[in-house]
Amino acid sequence: xxxxxxxxxxxxxxxxxxxxxxxxxxxxxxxxxxxxxxxxxxxxxxxxxxxxxxxxxxxxxxxxxxxxxxxxxxxxxxxxxxxxxxxxxxxxxxxxxxxxxxxxxxxxxxxxxxxxxxxxxxxxxxxxxxxxxxxxxxxxxxxxxxxxxxxxxxx
Length: 155
Fold this sequence. Notes:
Blueprint: E1 4-14, E2 19-22, H1 24-34, E3 36-45, E4 50-56, H2 59-72, H3 99-105, E5 111-117, E6 120-121, E7 127-133, E8 140-153
Antiparallel strand pairs: 1-8, 2-7, 3-5, 3-8, 4-7, 5-6
């Protein structure tokens, strides 16, 4: 058995939070271009306030999920992370008050792993892959790593 890997990074622009951005087709394109027949693909967010999740793309469900996240960790609540009068660690010049986004991320995944069989992603009928923006303090460019590990591929 030969194992090979192919990785690339995509950049997604976000402008609000929470924001569910369907990236399924981008992942499918990457898998198809890799010529992988059997293997896995890992979709990985390179951020602590943006997650990767698999769920259904249905507008009312998306709204329910947005409301759920806001109830769990409201952007309007007090967080020591946002209190720049006492915080002294990991501070940038443009540091945003995004404690809520970090807390919401605790319940999310930084990555999802999806099997590939016969060259196709093995997603269920309603499953889609989302980049989930949790920090809407300003527009952002989010980097997502898509890595295919092949157990069998066509040349």
